[in-house]
UniProtKB/TrEMBL annotation:
Entry keywords, A to Z: Hydrolase
Protein name per its UniProtKB record: BD-FAE-like domain-containing protein
Protein's UniProt keywords contain Hydrolase: yes
Gene Ontology MF, one: hydrolase activity
Domain of life: Bacteria
BD-FAE-like domain ranges (all copies): 47-244
Protein backbone atom coordinates (compact mmCIF):
# COMPACT_ATOMS: atom_id res chain seq x y z
CA UNK A 1 0.00 0.00 0.00
CA UNK A 2 1.49 3.37 -0.99
CA UNK A 3 1.50 6.38 1.32
CA UNK A 4 -1.56 8.02 -0.29
CA UNK A 5 -3.65 4.87 -0.01
CA UNK A 6 -2.53 4.41 3.59
CA UNK A 7 -3.53 7.95 4.56
CA UNK A 8 -6.88 7.59 2.79
CA UNK A 9 -7.61 4.31 4.55
CA UNK A 10 -6.64 5.81 7.89
CA UNK A 11 -8.94 8.76 7.33
CA UNK A 12 -11.89 6.51 6.52
CA UNK A 13 -11.22 4.44 9.62
CA UNK A 14 -11.16 7.54 11.81
CA UNK A 15 -14.41 8.79 10.25
CA UNK A 16 -16.03 5.41 10.79
CA UNK A 17 -14.94 5.38 14.43
CA UNK A 18 -16.38 8.87 14.90
CA UNK A 19 -19.69 7.87 13.34
CA UNK A 20 -19.95 4.74 15.47
CA UNK A 21 -19.30 6.78 18.61
CA UNK A 22 -22.06 9.26 17.83
CA UNK A 23 -24.90 8.74 20.27
CA UNK A 24 -28.48 8.44 19.01
CA UNK A 25 -31.26 9.16 21.50
CA UNK A 26 -34.80 7.86 20.90
CA UNK A 27 -37.11 10.71 21.91
CA UNK A 28 -39.61 8.37 23.55
CA UNK A 29 -37.49 5.55 25.03
CA UNK A 30 -40.50 3.95 26.70
CA UNK A 31 -42.00 3.39 23.25
CA UNK A 32 -45.07 5.50 24.02
CA UNK A 33 -44.91 7.78 20.97
CA UNK A 34 -47.67 10.43 21.04
CA UNK A 35 -50.25 10.23 18.25
CA UNK A 36 -48.44 7.34 16.53
CA UNK A 37 -50.27 4.70 14.56
CA UNK A 38 -48.88 1.20 14.15
CA UNK A 39 -45.76 1.21 11.97
CA UNK A 40 -44.87 4.85 12.62
CA UNK A 41 -41.26 5.94 12.98
CA UNK A 42 -39.45 6.77 16.21
CA UNK A 43 -38.18 10.36 16.26
CA UNK A 44 -34.62 10.74 17.53
CA UNK A 45 -31.77 13.05 18.44
CA UNK A 46 -28.20 12.54 17.26
CA UNK A 47 -25.56 14.04 19.52
CA UNK A 48 -22.65 16.10 18.18
CA UNK A 49 -20.49 16.50 21.28
CA UNK A 50 -17.61 18.99 21.17
CA UNK A 51 -14.18 18.21 22.55
CA UNK A 52 -14.14 18.45 26.33
CA UNK A 53 -11.72 21.39 26.33
CA UNK A 54 -14.03 23.36 23.98
CA UNK A 55 -17.45 22.63 25.47
CA UNK A 56 -18.97 25.59 27.32
CA UNK A 57 -22.40 24.20 28.17
CA UNK A 58 -24.44 25.83 25.39
CA UNK A 59 -26.57 23.48 23.27
CA UNK A 60 -28.59 23.80 20.07
CA UNK A 61 -31.25 21.47 18.66
CA UNK A 62 -31.07 21.50 14.84
CA UNK A 63 -34.09 20.92 12.58
CA UNK A 64 -33.45 20.45 8.86
CA UNK A 65 -35.92 21.63 6.26
CA UNK A 66 -37.64 19.62 3.57
CA UNK A 67 -41.13 21.12 3.11
CA UNK A 68 -42.49 18.95 5.95
CA UNK A 69 -42.13 16.09 3.47
CA UNK A 70 -38.47 15.21 4.09
CA UNK A 71 -35.45 16.20 6.16
CA UNK A 72 -32.45 17.71 4.37
CA UNK A 73 -29.98 16.53 6.99
CA UNK A 74 -27.11 16.01 4.57
CA UNK A 75 -27.06 19.57 3.23
CA UNK A 76 -28.44 21.45 6.26
CA UNK A 77 -28.62 19.70 9.60
CA UNK A 78 -25.39 17.71 9.67
CA UNK A 79 -23.12 20.53 8.37
CA UNK A 80 -24.72 22.92 10.88
CA UNK A 81 -24.20 20.46 13.73
CA UNK A 82 -20.56 20.02 12.76
CA UNK A 83 -20.00 23.79 12.70
CA UNK A 84 -21.61 24.20 16.11
CA UNK A 85 -19.64 21.30 17.55
CA UNK A 86 -16.35 22.73 16.27
CA UNK A 87 -17.21 25.99 18.06
CA UNK A 88 -17.73 24.24 21.41
CA UNK A 89 -21.53 24.15 21.21
CA UNK A 90 -23.20 20.78 21.75
CA UNK A 91 -25.52 20.12 18.82
CA UNK A 92 -28.44 17.71 18.67
CA UNK A 93 -29.80 16.84 15.23
CA UNK A 94 -33.54 16.29 15.55
CA UNK A 95 -35.22 13.79 13.27
CA UNK A 96 -38.77 14.96 13.96
CA UNK A 97 -41.64 12.98 12.47
CA UNK A 98 -42.95 14.15 9.13
CA UNK A 99 -46.70 14.85 9.20
CA UNK A 100 -48.37 11.90 7.48
CA UNK A 101 -51.99 11.04 8.23
CA UNK A 102 -51.46 7.33 7.57
CA UNK A 103 -48.79 7.15 10.30
CA UNK A 104 -50.21 9.39 13.01
CA UNK A 105 -53.21 11.12 14.48
CA UNK A 106 -53.39 14.94 14.45
CA UNK A 107 -50.45 15.19 12.11
CA UNK A 108 -50.39 18.99 12.24
CA UNK A 109 -49.08 19.04 15.83
CA UNK A 110 -46.74 16.04 15.65
CA UNK A 111 -43.56 17.90 14.53
CA UNK A 112 -44.18 20.53 17.23
CA UNK A 113 -44.70 17.82 19.85
CA UNK A 114 -41.43 16.13 18.86
CA UNK A 115 -39.50 19.40 19.02
CA UNK A 116 -41.00 20.18 22.42
CA UNK A 117 -40.08 16.69 23.57
CA UNK A 118 -36.48 17.29 22.47
CA UNK A 119 -36.35 20.42 24.66
CA UNK A 120 -37.97 18.58 27.55
CA UNK A 121 -35.64 15.59 27.27
CA UNK A 122 -32.46 17.66 27.09
CA UNK A 123 -33.43 19.92 30.00
CA UNK A 124 -34.22 16.87 32.13
CA UNK A 125 -30.97 15.12 31.12
CA UNK A 126 -28.73 18.18 30.95
CA UNK A 127 -26.17 16.79 33.38
CA UNK A 128 -25.69 13.67 31.26
CA UNK A 129 -24.62 15.78 28.28
CA UNK A 130 -22.84 18.47 30.33
CA UNK A 131 -25.08 21.24 29.03
CA UNK A 132 -26.66 24.19 30.80
CA UNK A 133 -30.48 23.81 30.67
CA UNK A 134 -30.78 27.61 30.57
CA UNK A 135 -28.57 27.79 27.45
CA UNK A 136 -30.63 25.61 25.13
CA UNK A 137 -31.46 27.01 21.70
CA UNK A 138 -33.08 25.63 18.57
CA UNK A 139 -32.18 26.14 14.90
CA UNK A 140 -34.30 25.45 11.81
CA UNK A 141 -33.94 25.68 8.05
CA UNK A 142 -36.81 26.43 5.66
CA UNK A 143 -39.81 24.35 6.84
CA UNK A 144 -37.65 23.46 9.83
CA UNK A 145 -37.62 27.20 10.44
CA UNK A 146 -41.41 27.17 10.51
CA UNK A 147 -41.26 24.39 13.06
CA UNK A 148 -38.73 26.31 15.16
CA UNK A 149 -40.70 29.57 15.03
CA UNK A 150 -43.78 27.56 16.09
CA UNK A 151 -41.81 26.16 19.02
CA UNK A 152 -40.74 29.69 19.98
CA UNK A 153 -44.21 31.20 19.82
CA UNK A 154 -46.38 28.33 21.08
CA UNK A 155 -44.31 26.85 23.90
CA UNK A 156 -47.18 27.43 26.36
CA UNK A 157 -49.38 25.11 24.26
CA UNK A 158 -48.52 21.44 24.31
CA UNK A 159 -50.04 17.99 24.10
CA UNK A 160 -46.85 16.54 25.57
CA UNK A 161 -46.96 14.61 28.83
CA UNK A 162 -44.92 16.86 31.11
CA UNK A 163 -45.34 15.81 34.75
CA UNK A 164 -42.32 17.83 35.95
CA UNK A 165 -43.57 21.02 34.36
CA UNK A 166 -40.30 21.38 32.43
CA UNK A 167 -40.10 24.61 30.45
CA UNK A 168 -40.61 24.03 26.73
CA UNK A 169 -39.44 27.54 25.79
CA UNK A 170 -36.12 27.60 23.92
CA UNK A 171 -33.64 30.18 25.19
CA UNK A 172 -32.94 31.41 21.65
CA UNK A 173 -33.87 30.60 18.06
CA UNK A 174 -31.93 30.53 14.79
CA UNK A 175 -34.05 30.67 11.62
CA UNK A 176 -32.41 30.12 8.24
CA UNK A 177 -34.42 31.05 5.11
CA UNK A 178 -37.45 30.11 7.22
CA UNK A 179 -41.06 29.60 6.30
CA UNK A 180 -42.75 31.84 8.87
CA UNK A 181 -46.16 32.74 7.47
CA UNK A 182 -48.92 30.54 6.09
CA UNK A 183 -50.63 33.50 4.41
CA UNK A 184 -51.19 32.96 0.68
CA UNK A 185 -48.99 35.92 -0.29
CA UNK A 186 -45.98 34.77 1.75
CA UNK A 187 -46.04 31.07 2.44
CA UNK A 188 -44.32 28.11 0.84
CA UNK A 189 -47.49 26.32 -0.21
CA UNK A 190 -46.00 22.80 -0.34
CA UNK A 191 -44.89 23.10 3.30
CA UNK A 192 -48.31 24.39 4.29
CA UNK A 193 -50.13 21.62 2.44
CA UNK A 194 -47.89 18.89 3.89
CA UNK A 195 -48.51 20.11 7.43
CA UNK A 196 -52.18 21.05 7.29
CA UNK A 197 -53.55 19.46 4.13
CA UNK A 198 -55.23 21.01 1.09
CA UNK A 199 -58.37 22.16 2.89
CA UNK A 200 -57.16 24.90 5.17
CA UNK A 201 -59.28 27.40 7.07
CA UNK A 202 -58.64 31.08 7.70
CA UNK A 203 -58.31 30.27 11.40
CA UNK A 204 -55.59 27.70 10.69
CA UNK A 205 -53.71 30.12 8.42
CA UNK A 206 -53.67 32.68 11.22
CA UNK A 207 -52.72 30.16 13.90
CA UNK A 208 -49.73 28.88 11.91
CA UNK A 209 -48.55 32.29 10.66
CA UNK A 210 -45.93 32.80 13.30
CA UNK A 211 -45.30 36.48 12.63
CA UNK A 212 -48.76 36.92 14.17
CA UNK A 213 -47.97 34.83 17.25
CA UNK A 214 -45.03 36.83 18.66
CA UNK A 215 -45.36 37.94 22.29
CA UNK A 216 -43.08 39.47 24.89
CA UNK A 217 -42.04 35.91 25.82
CA UNK A 218 -40.80 34.93 22.35
CA UNK A 219 -37.08 34.08 22.59
CA UNK A 220 -34.26 36.20 21.10
CA UNK A 221 -33.75 35.24 17.46
CA UNK A 222 -31.17 35.20 14.70
CA UNK A 223 -32.39 35.08 11.08
CA UNK A 224 -30.65 34.59 7.76
CA UNK A 225 -32.21 34.76 4.29
CA UNK A 226 -31.29 35.54 0.71
CA UNK A 227 -32.88 38.57 -0.91
CA UNK A 228 -33.19 36.61 -4.16
CA UNK A 229 -34.85 33.52 -2.64
CA UNK A 230 -37.47 32.39 -5.17
CA UNK A 231 -38.81 29.53 -3.04
CA UNK A 232 -39.38 31.08 0.40
CA UNK A 233 -39.97 34.82 0.12
CA UNK A 234 -37.47 36.86 2.16
CA UNK A 235 -40.44 38.77 3.58
CA UNK A 236 -41.02 35.81 5.88
CA UNK A 237 -37.83 36.80 7.71
CA UNK A 238 -38.51 40.52 7.43
CA UNK A 239 -42.01 40.27 8.89
CA UNK A 240 -40.89 38.04 11.75
CA UNK A 241 -37.97 40.36 12.53
CA UNK A 242 -40.32 43.35 12.52
CA UNK A 243 -42.74 41.59 14.87
CA UNK A 244 -39.93 40.76 17.29
CA UNK A 245 -38.74 44.36 17.32
CA UNK A 246 -42.23 45.58 18.16
CA UNK A 247 -41.98 43.57 21.37
CA UNK A 248 -38.36 44.70 21.97
CA UNK A 249 -37.09 41.16 21.62
CA UNK A 250 -33.40 40.97 20.60
CA UNK A 251 -33.10 39.98 16.95
CA UNK A 252 -30.28 39.82 14.41
CA UNK A 253 -31.01 39.70 10.68
CA UNK A 254 -28.27 38.52 8.31
CA UNK A 255 -29.34 39.04 4.70
CA UNK A 256 -27.55 38.00 1.54
CA UNK A 257 -27.89 39.99 -1.65
CA UNK A 258 -27.49 36.65 -3.43
CA UNK A 259 -28.38 33.52 -1.56
CA UNK A 260 -30.65 31.10 -3.32
CA UNK A 261 -32.81 28.85 -1.20
CA UNK A 262 -31.01 25.94 0.44
CA UNK A 263 -27.52 27.39 0.88
CA UNK A 264 -27.15 25.67 4.25
CA UNK A 265 -24.06 26.82 6.17
CA UNK A 266 -22.06 27.68 3.05
CA UNK A 267 -23.46 30.25 0.65
CA UNK A 268 -21.15 29.84 -2.33
CA UNK A 269 -22.26 33.22 -3.67
CA UNK A 270 -20.93 35.05 -0.62
CA UNK A 271 -17.59 35.66 1.07
CA UNK A 272 -18.94 36.01 4.62
CA UNK A 273 -20.99 33.14 6.05
CA UNK A 274 -23.95 33.60 8.35
CA UNK A 275 -23.00 30.59 10.49
CA UNK A 276 -19.79 32.25 11.72
CA UNK A 277 -21.66 35.43 12.64
CA UNK A 278 -24.43 33.37 14.23
CA UNK A 279 -22.03 31.42 16.44
CA UNK A 280 -20.63 34.68 17.75
CA UNK A 281 -24.20 35.87 18.39
CA UNK A 282 -25.01 32.67 20.29
CA UNK A 283 -21.96 33.11 22.48
CA UNK A 284 -22.83 36.75 23.21
CA UNK A 285 -26.46 35.85 23.89
CA UNK A 286 -25.30 33.24 26.38
CA UNK A 287 -23.46 35.83 28.44
CA UNK A 288 -26.47 38.16 28.61
CA UNK A 289 -28.35 35.81 30.90
Amino acid sequence: MNKLHYLTATLFCLLAIGLRAQEVIPLYPDGQVPFAKEGGEMPKLTVFQPARNLAKGTAVIVCSGGSYGGRANRVEGIPACNKLMEAGITAFLLDYRLPKAEKMERKEIVPLTDAQRAIQYLREHAGQYKIDPSRLGIMGFSAGGHLVSTVGTRFAESELYNPKGTSLRPDFMVLVYPVISFADSLTHKISRMNLLGPEITAEEIKAYSNELQVTMQTPPSYLSSGMDDKIVDVRNSLYFSAALRQYRIPVELFLYEKGRHGYGVNNTQAQVQWIDDCIQWIKKERYKK
